[in-house]
Amino acid sequence: xxxxxxxLGPLETNAYILSHSDGTCLIFDPGSEGEKLIRSIxxxxxxxxxxxxxxxxxxxxxxxxDLLIRWKLxxxxxxxEKAWLSNPSLNGSAYFIGEKVQVAHEPHCLQNETxxxxxxxxxxxxxxxxxxxxxxxxxCPEIEAVFSGDVLFAGSIGRTDLLGGxxxxxxxxxxxxxxxxxxxxxxxxxHGPETxxxxxxxxxxxxxxx
Length: 210
What we know:
The protein has helices spanning 34-44, 58-61, 64-70, 88-91, 93-96, 167-178, 197-203, and strands at 2-8, 13-19, 24-28, 47-52, 75-78, 108-110, 114-118, 121-127, 136-140, 145-149, 152-153, 156-157, 186-189, 195-196. It is α/β, with parallel strands linked by helices.
């Protein structure tokens, strides 16, 4: 397996494609620019199996409708943000951009920490709320990588001033769910460059003193 990062939209949200040697792939957080994302997948000849969301803010779901027109794909996200897909007030698009993002599709709701098996992929679902109530991270031990959404970044942490955000909860998620992973684990955030768990433990100024 290997992962590819594609920066999309004005907020440069990172979408990730996790591909397998059997030609299948998973799509994480398709934020916008659906045609660009589709073109990239088709150029590689990959067959998408599912869309996985770390959370349902507008800049992480904006290309879903384009993807669903091209492929019939299941969507996975935490049950606490199920209503956010179709509600611009909840997903933030009603306030931050000039158009309303609405996804009219029934998702597969994640309720607890579990191992999610889709085709040849096996991912550990980690509940990491704080940036949003239903934020999750997807840990793939096989490639030593975690898709962390907007929970933890290279040198920073997720904002907690949006709907349902909570600083104490965010810090608990980071310390109890992410920093316990092996230090060599690649941290693949929703914005900015990739880093590692060990690097953030050593250098991230927001993590010290909590």
